[in-house]
Design goal:
Elements lengths: L1 E4 L20 E5 L4 E4 L4 E4 L4 E4 L12
Antiparallel strand pairs: 1-3, 2-3, 4-5
Amino acid sequence: MTRANLKTQKFCAFCKHWYDPANSNIKPTNPRLSLWEFDSAAKCMCLKRNHEMKGGERCGYYDCKI
């Protein structure tokens, strides 16, 4: 698991377009400070790019789902 600050970092695991309906690859560490953990190796389909992306990747279509 990798840690991320959602205020400054934009990873696919936290994007609305990354298809993970159960949010099984992310979990809160300290949500008040926007600190979360995610599985950077997990792969899910990106609904915007129509391509399988890893949770640790980034792209220009990022839209935070949290």
